[in-house]
Amino acid sequence: MMCFLLFDMAQQEVVKKQLLPMLAEHELTPVAFNPHELPNWPEDARVLLYLSDDQISELLPCATDKQWQFAFLPHPNAVHAIKGGGVSSKLLQAVEDGLNNKARSVDLLLCNGRLVLNSVVIGDVFGLRPGGAIEGLWAKFKHLLSSGRRLGELVPKRYELITGNDEKIVTAAMGITVVEHGKNSVMGRRLLPGSHINDGMFHAILLAPRSLMEMYRFLLSSVFHRNSGSVPRSVGIIKTASLSVRSNGGMEYRHDGCEICAKELVFENQAKRLSLVSGRLLAIEEGASDSKEQRKIQHLPSGGAIEQMTKRPLSWIAHAATDEFKELYQALRENATPSNVFLTLMILSTLLASVGLFANSPPVIIGAMILAPLMGPIISLAMAIARQDESLLKGSLYTLFTGLALALGFAVIATWLIPLQQVTPEISARLRPNLLDLAVAVISGIAGAYAHARAALAKSLAGVAIAVALVPPLAVTGIGIGWGDTGIMWGAFLLFLTNLSGIVLAGAVTFLVLGFAPFSRAKRGLILSALAVVLVSIPLALSFVQVVHKTKLIKQLEGRLIDDIRLAEVRVVSSRPITVSVKLVAPRPLTASDYQNTKRAVEAVMKQPVVLEASSSLRLQ
């Protein structure tokens, strides 16, 4: 195999002093590059190119018919050829690779007829810019800050793309990166794991965040979590053999670092047109073949969202266009209708919860939680409050009150039919709600609204229903009504009100954050919801203070020694009067005076009279 060196005359001294001594052991002919006349070398000749990016871009399209084998060397002005060809920046290593590595047929990517050595970048792509990883924590932090300062001023542009299969894609994006393959950059290896330089295809990567929050999330991911294999929500990927890109008012783009303006960009991939000796940083697979066109664009803005995004800089929160949540709104309207299915499930879940409460059976109560359909109208009510939708509000409230009346009525009937009047632990657990129950309701409201907004998460709704437990408190309220016990009735109903107010407020705020309503519209409803939560929080806070106080008392008493008697299994079972249950562990049988002494010691710790319920246990050594 004959070898030749085609070099840049401007680098003649470097070639003479550094490059030629490295090639002294090889029969190699050096020739200065002349763009107007190509040498008459034989086919399959190996040609080492010590040329700039511009010279290589000019040479290769003209020389592909010569069937020469090309190897790039690290010329100081060949940054993009070096990246695209995976060439080592060390001259000696690049020479070794160029002489010894096997030549393979690879694709050529053209943009408006000009060869693309590495990438074409349209607009602002931030972390999608091809290149190496940012090394060092401080460098990453500075890059993040410099990128973040510009975000508030940038406005997404409308782009129209037509792929090789004549698929038309219209969207709004900050920018687009087009690359032949993803093997030569950290960004490419993360987003394009299945790309090859010889598969007949190339890639367009679109950066299209809906909001500043989404953009900052992408920047953090691109800077600090580059090894993740998932495609960020703000990114779309198109794999195709040809592509045209248009934008209103033209486009400014960087073709291998060169700043250019154009009204339209036409990309064409010429499959296996060039015989390339790649560098050690680019692995070329023999078996790579033409593949099908692929698109990962499900999260790109479309429809009315495009017009909204291209009018002004990105807002902090993305605002969904009407056509983007049409299906969600339809589902919520269905949830706000008291259908036969809703009424049936409401009755069955209430009866099941009532039986589980009387039987003190957590599995049965959990089944009632899953069966209960109340979460649907409550989430619909949250959306109605967020968007101030009067018809959805009326429908949600009507369905909610219908379900409430059914639950109370059938719980009362179940109480009359079941000949038991014992307050089981499961009933007792729902009589004293506190701020922790409100926290559960708020978190469940966020989860419920988010799961409704993301159809793929609908399977998580069963877990939300279990967590928030809407029907059991209503069943306990009905039991209290059936027994005529106002303490049980109001304690359990307060828990239901806690769940209801917490879910509605949290759900409305979640829909606001997800962009389903502007704050100006949601403000009035949010204020009323927050006021309801505040009112409910007053008795919850008092109850929580009592829980904290009981916990402190138990901590003070548990394990305490009174003479030779140790206190164990301490519980505060009642507050009025304060009643303490305790097991007394002693090495001897206890007398009546021992119990009296223990009672006085407990009262001294608690600094108030107590009713002591004590049992004893003999401990022999």
From TrEMBL:
TM helices/strands, residue ranges: 341-359, 365-385, 397-418, 438-457, 464-483, 489-514, 526-548
Name this protein carries in UniProt: TIGR00341 family protein
InterPro entries in the cross-refs: DUF389 (IPR005240), NAD/diacylglycerol_kinase_sf (IPR016064)
Pfam families documented for this protein: DUF389 (PF04087)
Membrane is among the record's keywords: yes
UniProt xrefs under Gene3D superfamilies: 2.60.200.40
SUPFAM superfamilies hit by this protein: NAD kinase/diacylglycerol kinase-like
Keywords: Membrane, Transmembrane, Transmembrane helix
